[in-house]
Each structure stands twice: as C-alpha cells, then as structure tokens.
Amino acid sequence: VPGTPTSYYHDGSAPSLHVVSDTSMAVRIGAPNFDGGDTISDFDIEWDPSSTFSSSSSGTAVGSARVTASRELCANCVTHFNNVTNTFTYDGNADMLKDMIAQRRVRVYFHQDGSGTGLGHAYTFSIDSATATTFTVDPGHLRKIKGWEIGAAAMLDEAGSSKADLLLMGTEYEITGLTAGTPYYVR
Predict the structure, then answer these.
(1) Strand pairing of 134-137 and 24-29?
(2) What b/e sequence results for 22-57 when a residue is b if at least 16 CB atoms lie within 10 Å of its CB, and e otherwise?
(3) How far is CA 57 from CA 45, 63, 105, in A?
(4) Distance CA 2, CA 35 (A)
(5) pLDDT tens, 62-71?
(6) What pLDDT, in 10s, does the model give residues 169-184?
(7) Is the CB of residue 184 less than 8 Å from the CB of residue 52?
(8) Which long-range contacts (CB under 8 A, 24 or more apart) does 16-20 make?
(9) Whole-angstrom Cα distance, residue 127 to residue 131?
C-alpha cells in the first residue's frame, strides 16, 4: 500500500490547495515517500462541501477527477549515472531546470532494451541539486539493495551510459465550477 501523498514541491510536507478564483482552486500533489513497491500512475481527487464526501444526489462527492501522477520532462534524455557521486547527466535546458529544485521527486525510467523502447525499470529519487546538464540525488533514495544495483547495471552500458526518460513526480490540477462562498473539502 502506498504512503500518503506529499507536497508537489518537496517530500517533507502535505499536498496543497491554492485559490485560483472565487469558483476554482488548484490542487498540487506530490508522490508519496513510499510507493508500495509499484509505480504510481494516477491520483484520485475528490471535492465536496461535506466532510463525509456525500453531497451529490447519489451520496458521493460532488466532484472527482483522476489525474496523472507525473509529467515527462524529457524522453531518452538521461545519458549517464555516476554511482560514486549519485549524479545523473541529462540533456536538460533552462526551462527544465526550473522544475529541478531540491527535494522535488523525479523518476528515471530505464528502457529494458536500451533503445528507448520496451518495458524497463523506474526509480524514484529526491533531487539534492541540479544544473541544466546534471542532477544529484539524495543517497537515501538510491535503494542500495540488489534490485537497484542489478537494475541500474542492466540498464547501463560499460561506460555507464544509457538513454532513460526523466519524469517529474506530482501533479497540478484545477478544480473548476465551484460555488462561490461555499467551503469545500478535498481529498
């Protein structure tokens, strides 16, 4: 079972709500610290004026949405991993760097066949620091177990190179059509 979702910006806080207008709000959700051993692909969001989430005529929440749990920053752009410095090299740019802030969660998806296609392994990390071409990850999230070492070794060639996708964990979703002046609960 996965853990509780975290902040969109760092893994030490809860998800957040932000007023967009008198009839809409933005929900920002980050990946949980523990994914339950499986990739989290979606988040289910519900909103309702009642804390029991039962205000609709069918006794359920007045609104709900299933939203993707990550956003691809770049495909086949992670080119190297240095397991001594915990640093990935990637084909980044200044726009991507804006998202690569400390404590943000990213997923590196290694393609099984190394060609940029096929099923492979995904690993989630917290960023320690980043530039437009490299990012260093928190060593506490390296999963220093046989699975990580075998998985990473299988995805990299002899020079430590591969082409892997880079995904930013978390999502932003705007809830619209709310009744002005009515308080809402969101889960």
Answers:
(1) unpaired
(2) eeebebbbbbbbebeeeebeebebebbeeeebebee
(3) 19, 12, 39
(4) 4
(5) 999 999 999 9
(6) 999 999 999 999 999 9
(7) no
(8) 17/186, 20/174
(9) 11
